[in-house]
Amino acid sequence: MDKRGFLFTAPGKLFFFTGLFFLVGCFEPAVPSPELGPGHSGPPQGQDTAYVTIIAAGDNLIHDIIYNSARTGPDGGFNFDPSYEHIRPIVEGADIAFVNQETVLGGEQFGYSGYPVFNTPQDAGLALIKAGFDVVNHASNHVMDRGEGAVYGTMDFWDAQGHIRCLGVFRTEEQRRTEKRIIEKKGIRIGFLSYTYGLNGFVLPKDKPWLVGMIDREVMAREIDELRPLCDLLVVSMHWGNEFQHQASETQRDLARFMAERQVDLIIGHHPHVTQGVEILPRPGGGSLTCYYSLGDLLSHTQSDWTPDTITGALAYIRIKKTRTGDGTLCTVDRAQVIPTVCHYRRERGSPFIVYPLWDYTNELAALHYKKNLTLDYLYRVAWDTFGLRVIEKNTPR
């Protein structure tokens, strides 16, 4: 495909790009031929290249006001599908779609509840599946909110769906030790690990310290080292950082360097409830680690008097490239970009909670938002201040 240049605009900003091309109405950048120099239109003879795309979302944090707005009637049913309908084409278009399901889906027997001790209707999980998500993380600070039984109930729910990979929680010590979370797509084997910084004051059962993936460098080093040789690309989900802070903490950065030293390829970060930037860290011996420090909230009613940024999130757009030659293979993160999102809800009680790609949001919608004085310009500035040129826009020049 020929190189194409295009103007990329956001309020108050104008940039010129070459080598990237986005079809109108499509989220995914067209896959270009590798840059091989003049006269080449594909991989060199004897070289085979495969690509896998990952979409990753941050915190799906279901407060009680959200599930109450999703009620379908007095019989106790819920419909969360409208919350994700505007991002569904994006998520479905990926080869792998990850989400941090912040709250447990333990089952009705534990009682539905919101902040500060959550248990979410399992219909919310069904809506995530319908939206296209197939890798779900539960290693978060809320995973033990309703105790051990709700953790097992959550695993029972996902296991019943058949094709969903659930990260960060384990049925048995043997499962954690022997079962490797690896997904193979297009000949690329992608391994997943997941850890959380804490449990909001709750503790793991004394006889089940392995139940949840906790940030522990000794454990992480062992599990990374065991999984690394079994996959082409290693992804670690990290629930970490300081809430409402757009800047990654030194603890996050130090942990990222630790994982780079152990040859991790990609970190998907969440928990701060606002977005944080992307960093590329060099690895000893060559290669690099791509770190998304925080993707913010996907869906939530997180309230903060000092920042409206809890409604701004991001879908990470990640493209994995594996090249096979006669000398071996090389697998890398080929692209690390973001699609900014907005969690929309109105001031009227019972109004639905809906996630929009920022490129589909309008000032008319912003004027109706629960957060007062919200503007599209402000939302774009948050996205660009955090992610800069990694932001993907929908439109191409006319």
Q: Low-confidence spans: pLDDT under 50, at least 5 residues? A: 1-45
Strand content: 25-35%
Number of helices: 10
- How much helical structure, as a percent, in the residues? 10-25%
The CATH topology turns out to be Purple Acid Phosphatase, chain A, domain 2
Output the CATH class name. Answer: Alpha Beta
- Overall SS class: alpha/beta
Number of domains: 1
* Number of E-type strands: 16
Query: What sequence of helices (H) and strands (E) makes up the elements?
Result: EEEHHHEHEHEHEEHEHEEEEEEEHH
Question: Biggest sheet: strands, sense, closure?
Answer: 8 strands, mixed
Compute the average pLDDT: 88
* Assigned CATH superfamily: Metallo-dependent phosphatases
Radius of gyration, in angstroms, nearest whole number: 21 Å
Distance between the termini: 20 Å
In the CATH classification, which architecture applies?
A: 4-Layer Sandwich
Query: What global shape is seen?
Result: globular
| Oligomer kind | single chain
Task: Give the SSE layout.
Blueprint: E1 5-10, E2 13-18, E3 48-60, H1 64-69, H2 81-84, H3 88-92, E4 96-101, H4 123-131, E5 135-137, H5 147-161, E6 165-167, H6 173-178, E7 182-185, E8 188-196, H7 217-227, E9 233-239, H8 250-261, E10 266-270, E11 275-282, E12 288-295, E13 297-299, E14 312-325, E15 328-344, E16 354-357, H9 363-368, H10 376-387
Parallel strand pairs: 3-4, 3-13, 4-5, 5-6, 8-9, 9-10, 10-12
Antiparallel strand pairs: 1-2, 3-14, 7-8, 11-12, 14-15, 15-16
